[in-house]
Amino acid sequence: MEIGTDSTLxxxxxxxxxxxxxxxxxxxxxxxxxxxxxxxxxxxMTRVLRLTLLAPDIVEAILDGKQPSQVTMARVLEPxxxxxxxxxxxx
Length: 91
Description:
This protein is an all-alpha fold. It contains 6 helices and no strands.
């Protein structure tokens, strides 16, 4: 069952990809440095950054509000498989 657009999840995805760009560009050399600038805990930033490892179809479903009901912010911040096929089974 789809739950519609989850603005918390969409915002988290946007932040994750923005933070990834900032780190990859060299603007910040460590997660700790970026987390301090953003005013959040490095451990939280690390968990949110993992969202950049979600399979493209899962990201697209979240952005379109078509993600399964079990794809929640709490659930995606927990460890999940890195392999995209395994993610489909996990979620």
